[in-house]
Amino acid sequence: MNVTIYKRPDGRSEVIDCRNVYPDDAKWFEDNRVAISMEDIGGGFAVYADTGKEVEGEPDELIELSQGRTCEETLHALREQCEREMKC
Q1: How far apart are CA 39 and CA 18, in angstroms?
Q2: What is the C-alpha to C-alpha distance for residues 66 and 16, in angstroms, rounded to an integer?
Q3: What is the pTM of this model?
Q4: Which terminus of the chain is more exposed, N or C, with fewer CB under 10 A?
């Protein structure tokens, strides 16, 4: 699954093929056209979901912090958050 990762220290972005995602979650994000990005926040990652919704012209992204969880677990929690927000 393609993910945009923002790298420290300058925030340079790169699109990577994230393989540490449960197949059902990757399919759900792709089927629902949810763009995923992440950034290193020191000791963990902030993972963002862009569902296409905007507020005052800016993306209204959902966020999940890894907080010691695996990438798979964090992305699964982000999917659940998206489903609640999007009522899927």
Answers
A1: 13
A2: 18
A3: 0.91
A4: C
For 59, the domain range is 2-86
CA angle at residue 64 from 58 to 69, to 5 degrees? Answer: 160
Query: 34-68: string of b/e by CB count within 10 Å (b at 16+)?
Result: bebbbeeeeeebbbbbbbeeeeeeeeebbebebee
Span 2-50, pLDDT tens digits: 999 998 888 899 999 999 999 999 999 999 999 999 999 988 999 999 9
Amino acid at 47: V
Q: Please state the φ and ψ torsions of residue 15, each to the nearest 5 degrees.
A: -90, 125
Query: How many separate domains does the chain show?
Result: 1
d(CA 43, CA 46): 10
